[in-house]
Amino acid sequence: MSARRATAADWPQVAALRTRVFVEEQGVPAEIEQDAHDATAVHALAEDDAGRVVATGRLLVRDGRAVIGRMAVDAAARGRGYGAAVLAELHRQAVALGLTEVELHAQLPARGFYERAGYTAVGGVYEEAGIAHVTMRRPLV
Ligand SMILES: CC(C)(COP(=O)(O)OP(=O)(O)OC[C@H]1O[C@@H](n2cnc3c(N)ncnc32)[C@H](O)[C@@H]1OP(=O)(O)O)[C@@H](O)C(=O)NCCC(=O)NCCS
């Protein structure tokens, strides 16, 4: 399973996947799903055997810290390692930028996925876009 950094040419497929997962499946308002950070973020993706984009995520740098978000795997492709591959690619990109720690806001049902990837929850549960989240961090070494 491999993932790669997305290029500008990939954006329509990346955006369509995020819309399917966050807007259509989870009910996040379309006007907050895409935001100004998308223009500057590093985006990663994984494709299935047919070349369709089935997983994505993005990396931002905030206050000197790597922040990962918008992790989304096509519903039909979950549980096959695509999410882990995208996360690993975002970690590689963060290391290449010289960053030493990564933070993310995990949806509660996805907490176990991030724990499996070495993240630890910090602090309590809060709501974002109407969905319960917890902040998680992981060293990048
Ligand atoms: C959460 C999500 C990104 C995981 O991606 P995925 O491709 O299904 O996960 P993977 O197949 O790469 O799983 C990697 C490992 O995490 C585990 N895992 C996956 N989802 C999990 C979950 N929700 N809870 C606990 N463990 C989980 C897998 O069993 C696997 O473990 P293994 O290494 O022992 O085999 C995906 O399910 C998804 O897009 N969900 C909907 C949107 C969402 O919740 N996004 C997260 C926003 S914070």
Automatic annotation (TrEMBL):
<keyword id="KW-0012">Acyltransferase</keyword>
<feature type="domain" description="N-acetyltransferase">
    <location>
        <begin position="1"/>
        <end position="141"/>
    </location>
</feature>
<dbReference type="Pfam" id="PF13673">
    <property type="entry name" value="Acetyltransf_10"/>
</dbReference>
<dbReference type="InterPro" id="IPR050832">
    <property type="entry name" value="Bact_Acetyltransf"/>
</dbReference>
<protein>
    <submittedName>
        <fullName>Predicted N-acyltransferase, GNAT family</fullName>
    </submittedName>
</protein>
<dbReference type="InterPro" id="IPR016181">
    <property type="entry name" value="Acyl_CoA_acyltransferase"/>
</dbReference>
<dbReference type="GO" id="GO:0016747">
    <property type="term" value="F:acyltransferase activity, transferring groups other than amino-acyl groups"/>
</dbReference>
<dbReference type="InterPro" id="IPR000182">
    <property type="entry name" value="GNAT_dom"/>
</dbReference>
<keyword id="KW-0808">Transferase</keyword>
